[in-house]
Amino acid sequence: xxxxxxxxxxxxxxxxxxxxxxxxxxxxxxxxxxxxxxxxxxxxxxxxxxxxxxxxxxxxxxxxxxxxxxxxxxxxxxxxxxxxxxxxxxxxxxxxxxxxxxxxxxxxxxxxxxxxxxxxxxxxxxxxxxxxxxxxxxxxxxxxxxxxxxxxxxxxxxxxxxxxxxxxxxxxxxxxxxxxxxxxxxxxxxxxxxxxxxxxxxxxxxxxxxxxxxxxxxxxxxxxxxxxxxxxxxxxxxxxxxxxxxxxxxxxxxxxxxxxxxxxxxxxxxxxxxxxxxxxxxxxxxxxxxxxxxxxxxx
Amino acid sequence: xxxxxxxxxxxxxxxxxxxxxxxxxxxxxxxxxxxxxxxxxxxxxxxxxxxxxxxxxxxxxxxxxxxxxxxxxxxxxxxxxxxxxxxxxxxxxxxxxxxxxxxxxxxxxxxxxxxxxxxxxxxxxxxxxxxxxxxxxxxxxxxxxxxxxxxxxxxxxxxxxxxxxxxxxxxxxxxxxxxxxxxxxxxxxxxxxxxxxxxxxxxxxxxxxxxxxxxxxxxxxxxxxxxxxxxxxxxxxxxxxxxxxxxxxxxxxxxxxxxxxxxxxxxxxxxxxxxxxxxxxxxxxxxxxxxxxxxxxxx
Lengths: 299, 299
Hints:
2 copies of one chain form a homodimer.
Chain A: E1 5-8, H1 10-16, H2 24-36, E2 41-46, H3 59-65, E3 73-77, H4 81-89, E4 94-100, H5 103-110, H6 114-130, E5 134-140, H7 153-166, E6 170-175, H8 182-195, E7 201-205, H9 212-220, E8 226-229, H10 249-258, H11 267-281, H12 288-298
Helix pairs in contact in A: 2-3, 2-11, 7-8, 8-9
């Protein structure tokens, strides 16, 4: 059976965007439940400025205390060498850097232009590689920027290549604002895969306009085999203005397994992890498969 | 540009499944707003037993008073000759019959076995055709039945052929319980299109498990060019147990237009129609594109 890697980002991209903070012990218990669902990779936190991102202030504490499973890779965002040093100190063997396609977004997010961020990230990748830590690259706003609008495809290709040349093991091409539709996915992936081996690419979709799963289906045709998602669709609530959660892991797994792909992840385990975290974020999680699973069980 | 027909079923399949009843005048105003969004086809009501389906008791009243647009076909469900006579009396030129793949579902829904229903529908189609009324066929539970489980593909093919042989102009192959995933869609459509010209088929998905839009994308590869949907995702609320709305029209249009298909339908018009009906059903409508459109406007 063909294999797909589902990269669980709920503890980081999900919880970082929840209005209600989850305490560290509950984060750890949540991550342990995800580990028991046998994800190949989980992004657990971010070593960023706690004043700017208070939800991730406990990154060191969380990374030290989770029960790491041998079959799972654990990763965290690092914006700079200081972040890398923190990640290294708690024993992470994988980190992620996060660039954007537009200068406006980049300045607002990490206070640097895109080119400045690339120069800094090259140093981070070099240092990480020297420490035996591998680095994932995110290219945010690859399908559109909330400030600058459309992301030129040639720019997406060039920046993806720049990160790969630094030495990242894959680039997660990311639809940060959930605006991509399969037509755009086909256009961007045709350009990317003309120059880049698909195994160097991951796709990271948000389900803001309901297209995330269809975007995955379109991506599979380009031999993309790694997708990011968050348990329950954490990080978004369809009834909150502007909320835009990641593609929900349950919905992704249901489709992938139905298409005959092997993920190794327990769908039932993810549903159970979502059910456990749901009361802590204090709103119903938006994953449709998850909601249907609960409803079916109730009947 | 290639064309796709979006068949709006919100006033019927949507409102019939809303727990709060919408009064007739508001239904008429809603349908008129949908007509102004230039849908090629709208299913407006059902001439069924008002004791069993009180939400559709005003079918005659509604069909008589809507402002029919020349470019739009208006249709209603008819279970039998009595229903057809009511539809004919109010001037409808298109009706729909609704069969199922499983005897259990069929008996619960229309109190007949599948074979009994087909015999009765053959009479309805004959009478309708004699009156110059064309007939659409629904094949419910084509991807699974809540009582009998899986729907055998050969049975789906045979029943679709049976309805086409009666003289229906197309069969809407329907995922009544929203369980289909693209893997199953490919399997069913490969079997159907091996024997049936795709222009005789429409696909009708519910978004219960989040896969509806991906299912449409998979169907497009089989040259399917007609899809059912409901404005705002009427008929479902992601936070209500067991609720399973139709694929939302806004989400469908956003994807189809992004893929370069021409529908002729105004996405902005549909968003406005959804916004108008939302307070009457007394819960937030689940369409993700719709919610994102409102949120973007608010900011």
